[in-house]
């Protein structure tokens, strides 16, 4: 594809331009979530001697993507997410979680970072990734080595210093995926199965690619 901005824009439909904007916004939210998780869980960064937040950001968000890491057994997508929430994992849980979320979202857009005419979206993958984000949020709030100590700290309900910013971030990411699924499906109503009851035992949905 040409590098000329004008010609590149001519090769895009309105939906392509919207998709590009959604992909960019999701990456911005993932970057924000990564930084917030490390600030809330500083010990995770120390599991890799000499590691810094900047280095982790480079690993996660470099272009082109290269999200298979030896320290995570080359796991990506839902497998990396499960690793981050596994009792037997002793590595950097923030890194494992964000590797999983970032690669899952990439997969929901077919691994593309930019869309052009004739490129297609999968409403099914977009919807499944949204449901996975709901499940991840629930498990972060309710699971860990004990009921008093989740694997990763997120929201705080301390009346003195309440912090629901993680909930809001996940909410934005979920809404973007659901909206993109609706757009890619021609605006038709979808029968989206929102996990409300029984989510504690719900399995993450593989995206099928």
Give an overview of the whole structure.
Helix 2 packs antiparallel against helix 6 (93-108), helix 2 (14-40) runs antiparallel to helix 8 and helix 5 packs antiparallel against helix 6. The two termini are 24 Å apart. The protein has eight helices and no strands. It is 53% helix and 0% strand. The chain has helices at 5-10, 14-40, 42-45, 53-61, 77-84, 93-108, 123-142, 165-184. Mean pLDDT is 79; it is low at 1-11 and 187-201. The longest helix is centred in the first third of the chain and has 27 residues, at 14-40.
Rg calculated over all Cα atoms: 18 Å
Helical residues, percent: 40-55%
The 3D shape can be described as globular
Average pLDDT level:
79
Number of helices: 8
Number of strands: 0
Order of helices and strands: HHHHHHHH
Low-pLDDT parts are: 1-11, 187-201
Through-space gap between termini:
24 Å
Strand content: under 5%
**Oligomeric form:** single chain
Q: Which structural class matches the secondary elements?
A: mainly alpha
Largest sheet: none
Please render the helix and strand layout as text.
Elements: H1 5-10, H2 14-40, H3 42-45, H4 53-61, H5 77-84, H6 93-108, H7 123-142, H8 165-184
Helix pairs in contact: 2-6, 2-8, 5-6, 6-7, 7-8
Q: What would you say about this model in short?
A:
With 209 residues, the protein is mainly α. The chain contains 8 helices and no strands. α2 (14-40) packs antiparallel against α6, α2 runs antiparallel to α8 (165-184) and α5 runs antiparallel to α6.
Task: Give short descriptive properties of this protein.
single chain; 209 residues; mainly alpha; 8 helices; 53% helix; 0% strand; disordered N terminus
């Amino acid at each position: 594809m040409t590098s000329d901005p004008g010609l590149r824009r001519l090769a895009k439909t309105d939906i392509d331009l919207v998709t590009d904007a959604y992909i960019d916004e999701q990456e911005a939210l993932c970057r924000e979530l990564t930084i917030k998780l490390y600030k809330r869980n500083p010990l995770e960064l120390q599991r890799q001697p000499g590691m810094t937040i900047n280095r982790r950001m480079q690993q996660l968000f470099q272009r082109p993507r290269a999200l298979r890491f030896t320290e995570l057994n080359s796991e990506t997508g839902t497998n990396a997410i499960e690793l981050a929430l596994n009792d037997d994992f002793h590595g950097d849980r923030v890194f494992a979680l964000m590797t999983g979320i970032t690669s899952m979202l990439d997969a929901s857009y077919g691994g593309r970072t930019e869309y052009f005419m004739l490129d297609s979206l999968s409403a099914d993958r977009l919807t499944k990734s949204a449901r996975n984000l709901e499940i991840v949020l629930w498990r972060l709030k309710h699971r860990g080595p004990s009921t008093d100590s989740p694997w990763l700290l997120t929201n705080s309900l301390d009346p003195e210093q309440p912090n629901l910013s993680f909930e809001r971030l996940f909410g934005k990411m979920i809404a973007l995926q659901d909206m993109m699924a609706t757009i890619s499906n021609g605006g038709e109503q979808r029968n989206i199965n929102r996990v409300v009851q029984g989510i504690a035992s719900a399995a993450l949905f593989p995206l099928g690619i």
